[in-house]
UniProtKB/TrEMBL annotation:
The lineage of its organism: Bacteria, Bacillati, Actinomycetota, Actinomycetes, Kitasatosporales. GO terms for molecular function: DNA binding; DNA-binding transcription factor activity. This is DNA-binding transcriptional LysR family regulator. Residues 5-195 form the LysR substrate-binding domain. Residues 203-218 have a biased composition (Basic and acidic residues).
Amino acid sequence: MTGSEESPAFRLACVPGVTPSKWVRIWNERLPHIILTLTQVPAAEVCEALRRGEADAGFVRLPVDGDDLSAIPLYEETTVVVIPKDHLFAAADEVAVADLAEEVALHPLDDTLDWEQPPGRPALERPATTADAVELVAAGIGVLIVPQSLARLHHRKDLTYRTITDVPTSRVALSWPQEATTDMVEDFIGIVRGRTANSTRGRRAEPEPKAKRPEKGATRRQQPAGGKGGGRGAGKTAGKPAAKNARRGSGGPKGGKPRRRP
């Protein structure tokens, strides 16, 4: 490889909370000659990053805005409420959204849940990020409702979380620009969909090599030895069993019975 040639690379964007380690590992096993680079991009910016060509594909949170991006839904996350460890809700296994009626519910600007109306009482000011909202929960300002992966990402020893029911959930998808569905994108789609390494679905099938034509005369049957040029009648008696004697006891004297001695 010359200095002017670059190794192929697949650029993958990822929103906070999503852990693509399993798929990245499979990629490295199957395509070790193609480097996969992983970049974390805020959920609100990942679609524009794909449109600008800053990544070949990305893990996003649905819905995806616009029709120019393809998306394959992968899984749906559980929604949880983040609370201080000494909060009343910590004694329960799960919380209903109606239980938050008197709670200050923080609603950060980068919220990934599709709310019609956020529950609880609104805070005086919306935090800029989920990380800022977690700090406010730790300070006792309010509670925070997020996908479970984000609660784990921003875990603190003084906080915990509980499943909350009757609220929107977050769906994670693989997305890429429709006009840039490359072979590498198809390869990664196959990985996240669980296709085997030998599967060619999504790839253009390689043309099979044409079978070579046999050389002239190569299929002509060989003549048996002695079958040609051996003269007329040659080989007719070969292997033919010897004729049996017409009379039993051949080889004795002619003339019937032998004479007796006087």
